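Task: fold both queries, return tokens.
Query 1:
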Amino acid sequence: PFYESGKIEKLPMSERDVEPVMRLLSDIQPHQIYVAADLADPHGTHRKCTDAVLAAINEFKNARPDNPCLWLKDCRVWMYRGAWAEWDVADIEMCVPMSPEELREKRNAILRHQSQMESAPFLGNDERLFWQRAEDRNRDTARQYDELGLACYEAMEAFVEYRF
């Protein structure tokens, strides 16, 4: 619901945002959850989405602290970065290689998101479009892994685990 402001600036996140996330998590009972870690993104949307997911997880944990949801015990929360910055290689805990076709699919997915069609606000002088920064970031991660002597890929998406 916070996203439905009709404006660039979104509404504050509330319990109304956490409830549908809780229903979804309860229905799916995932083993992995992926959340954005760009918590200072220009529109604040990434932070609010991540906060809603983490609040839902806390609700599950606090509802029955003596007997937590079984699926939650085996669930990992993975944080990814957007186009603004990448994790330091020493901090990366999981890295997923991408082929040229998969990188193109990622670009197309970004371009389907209307707010990413034009230049996105960025703190600095970087004039590249969001999808260009994201591709360059993924390619640079793959280059760093290659320089470390690991397998060479077109691009790599890096993750750090959020421990709850």
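Query 1 returned. Query 2:
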Amino acid sequence: TQTDTAALIELQRLNILQQALSEKYLKDKQPTEKELRAEYETQVAAMPRQEYRARHILVATEQFADKLVRELKRGAKFEDVARRESMDGSKENGGDLGWFTPDRMVKPFADAVVALKPGEFTQTPIQTPYGWHIIRLEETRELEPPTYDSVKQRLEQVILARKFRDYVDGLMKTAKVDNRLEPAPAPAAGDSA
């Protein structure tokens, strides 16, 4: 519709104005080496230090999960039970989820994995929004952070985006917005419409 087209054009115009303002404001605000190093240290400190490789069996009910835990305790192979019973796509690989960091998993699952030692499986099922899991930790490994040089360009983008966001936030705090609707002035006598 005409209204949608006008709104789209206005949105594009505002995006162009924002891009121009961003380029003008950031022109002489390139991050210093000190800022880049500080951002790198902050991001590295927040990164997980360990990766986990685990298998899981996902089922719909706690009762069925309990039954499978008993089966595993009696010596059933985890991979075989996963292939036979899991509802998850990983069942084809015997429940193998590959390598992951805890922040990539829902909290109850991540907490359970972190509490296990390699070779152990959860003795009680873990509930998540996806169902009930039995989890076996295969192995862990130290996670090396990326080198400073490999992420330097991305760090520059992060710092520049933050500088511009802070600038816009400052403008918004001091902006005076007049949202009163006033009628357009009436044409003067003798003006043609």
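Both queries returned. Flag for query 2: Strands lie at 50-59, 96-100, 126-128, 131-142.
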